[in-house]
Specification:
By secondary structure, this protein is of the alpha+beta class. β10 and β11 form a beta hairpin. α9 packs across α10, α13 crosses α14 and α15 crosses α16.
Length: 662
């Protein structure tokens, strides 16, 4: 019995060590020797690529080579889109092929920048608390010439403003553990790298994606557990191979980063200057769950040009003491609402061509959801840049003062930590004493009612819609300082009678400019133009089941689908059985007729039209003109209807605004 008790006692003492040993064996760091095996494997696999530009065919060629490789674990190759697959290896490293990342690696050229791999600069005379640290993570600096030293300069400016410490990690110093350390300790963490998702089909990297990745140049510190598939079938770390130029591609998502963190984050801000970081919640959600307060990123692949412009404005505002919401609004006002907005002039085109939208997630800003990130976002985050030896004012309670307007109409909050009263600019203009006052132009079609403060005259618009529903003076909204969308046009000003109509038609993607920053308000409207506009309002309904009756409407022309759709719906007829005359100018009675038929040919009265030229209305257009006059769509011109007169683009925009509002 004694011997048995001694054995049991020894076993009980060894049990914790046995569990630890089992865990250590279960999750081991990948060694340099194992990575060397994987690198050698990739050198063989990538010889299977036949084309210069990687695509779906390249993916199939490499996949065939994978299944023949000695490191491949059978039955683990999984396709996620036509251009992307993953597979497991006997080394414990999960690998993947992405045509997009292959093309990035092939194009990468070494930079002339000779930056250190690691740098630390302290801007405080005292021992700096980690709450004021700035981390810049740049895995490809010096490896890909697209990356400049702009974020290094920005990081130093931020750290200096906080009296904090600046940390730089580049190339092989930008490890998973360095990233985790930055997340734990940083007030501001900047990922200046490439990004990706785990899905690719042509130019679509989002619809089938399950997570988003930050790309690192090194896999040092990653473990066998990091590379394992989770219960939902997601890999949180993937090795995407290497290129002859020295670029290596290790993908890690937010779960992988969070698993390497040993403590909660410091209520800081993460600026993800990487592609596709907000395409899913795979990066932001685990980082937020670990204590990061604000995460900024992009819905799609973003250009360096726009990211660099946005960040300059954003961080200048933060350094100036503004909160995140104010900084984001300023950067959108000055740079644009989406990537390449100088090229994609309306939101429809921006979405169709996968332009990146900036997205913020915080305690006050929910993630829009997978598939819903290509959209405008109103940001509410009140996070501000902390200053060393000062209270960060993160713990506040609402303490409303009387709206005397002496505080500029701002809400006053009191910090529970230090008792200081804070002017919270996010709530600007909400605490005035208002009376309703219609302002011109009201833009009531898009926004809420306008109010003016009886004490100080400030303006406020209820239920404000971004870029529409404002009161514009000299092209700038008096409420928020945004430029009027019509500022895009050199021939439209806020003082023109047609300004609101053009704003409506342009803002709702019904009418575009004609090029050269011109709307051409006085140009004539053709028959093809109007049916194309109406077709857009129906979300460009398919014409697959319709027959084209017109010989002068040729397939491939910009108006073909719209004309065939309108003819098949009975909205338009030709000038004869086989001729539509798409380029012919529209008369006012033709406009009324087309809109009348589009509205379903509603019943009208037999009331006589009290216009001296009413007799000039064609018989086919009589009911339509009665309807247009009764509903206020068409008004007289110098006391006449002018039914056979042509309409300008400005006039059609005004008619469309009235029509759509009804």
């Amino acid at each position: 019995m004694k011997r048995l008790l001694i054995v049991l006692l020894v076993l009980s003492m060894l049990l914790p060590y046995a569990v630890f040993a089992e865990r250590a064996e279960h999750s081991q760091r990948i060694t340099a020797a194992q990575y060397a095996e994987v690198d050698a494997m990739w050198q063989k696999l990538l010889r299977a690529e036949k084309s210069v530009v990687a695509d779906a065919q390249s993916a199939r060629e490499v996949a065939a080579a994978v299944e023949k490789n000695e490191l491949y674990v059978p039955d683990t190759l999984r396709w996620n889109g036509e251009d992307h697959f993953t597979f497991e290896t006997t080394t414990g490293v999960t690998c993947g092929y992405s045509a997009r990342l292959r093309n990035i690696a092939k194009k990468a050229e070494a930079s002339v920048l000779s930056q250190p791999e690691r740098e630390t600069i302290c801007y405080s005379e005292q021992n700096t608390a980690s709450a004021y640290d700035v981390y810049v993570i740049e895995p490809y600096l010096g490896i890909d010439e697209s990356f400049t030293d702009q974020y290094q300069k920005e990081g130093k400016s931020i750290a200096a403003a906080m009296n904090g410490t600046y940390h730089l990690y580049t190339r092989n110093e930008a490890t998973i553990d360095a990233v985790a350390d930055a997340m734990e300790n940083g007030a501001v963490v900047i990922f200046d790298s490439h990004g990706d998702t785990d899905f690719a089909r042509g130019d679509d990297y989002t619809s089938g994606a399950t997570t988003s990745y930050l790309l690192l140049q090194t896999g040092a510190g990653l473990t066998t557990d990091d590379y394992k598939m989770d219960a939902n079938g997601v890999y949180h770390a993937v090795n995407y191979g290497s290129a002859s130029g020295g670029m290596k591609l290790y993908a890690v998502d937010g779960t992988c980063i969070a698993n390497h963190m040993e403590k909660e984050a410091n209520h800081g801000l993460v600026w993800m200057a990487i592609c596709l970081s907000m395409a899913t919640d795979g990066l932001q959600a685990p980082l937020r769950a670990k204590g990061m307060e604000v995460v900024y990123g992009y819905s799609q692949s973003v250009t360096f040009d726009y990211d660099y412009m946005w960040e300059e404005v954003f961080f200048d505002e933060l350094i100036d003491g503004k909160d995140v919401a104010t900084a984001v609004q300023k950067m959108k006002n000055e740079v644009g609402l989406w990537d390449c907005c100088d090229y994609y002039e309306n939101i429809r085109d921006a979405r169709n061509y996968d332009a990146a939208f900036p997205i913020v997630v915080s305690s006050e800003d929910a993630y829009p959801g997978h598939g819903n990130v290509d959209d405008l976002q109103t940001v509410y985050s009140t996070w501000v840049l902390p200053k060393n030896n000062e209270c960060t004012h993160q713990n506040v309670e609402e303490n409303y003062k009387e709206a005397s307007c002496l505080e500029g109409g701002y809400r006053i909050v009191t910090c529970l930590d230090c008792g200081e009263e804070i002017v919270n600019e996010v709530y600007e203009m909400l605490w005035h004493s208002f009376e309703m006052s219609k302002l011109e132009p009201t833009c009531d079609f898009a926004g809420g009612d306008f109010y003016t403060c009886v004490r100080c005259g400030d303006f406020y618009v209820e239920n404000e819609i971004p870029a529409i529903g404002h009161n514009y003076v000299d092209e700038i909204c008096v409420n928020c300082g945004r430029f009027c969308p019509c500022y895009d046009f050199s021939d439209v000003t806020v003082n023109d009678w047609f300004h609101d109509a053009v704003l409506f038609a342009y803002g709702n993607a019904m009418m575009n400019g004609v090029g050269d920053r011109r709307f051409a308000p006085n140009a004539a409207v053709t028959r093809a133009m109007l049916v194309t506009i109406l077709h857009r309002t129906e979300a460009s309904e398919s014409i697959d089941e319709f027959v084209n009756p017109f010989t002068d409407v040729v397939p491939g022309t910009w108006y073909h689908d719209a004309v065939v759709w309108a003819a098949s719906k009975g909205i338009v007829n030709g000038i004869d059985a086989v001729t539509f005359a798409p380029e012919a100018p529209l008369t006012r009675e033709q406009i009324a007729t087309i809109l009348y038929r589009h509205a379903g040919s509603p019943e009208v009265t037999d009331a006589k039209l009290e216009f001296p030229d009413a007799a000039e209305i064609s018989l086919y257009a009589l009911d339509a003109m009665r309807w247009a006059v009764e509903t206020g769509l068409i008004n007289g011109m110098d006391g006449k209807l002018a039914p056979t007169g042509t309409a300008t683009r400005a006039q059609i925009a005004a008619i469309l605004m009235r029509y759509m509002s009804k």
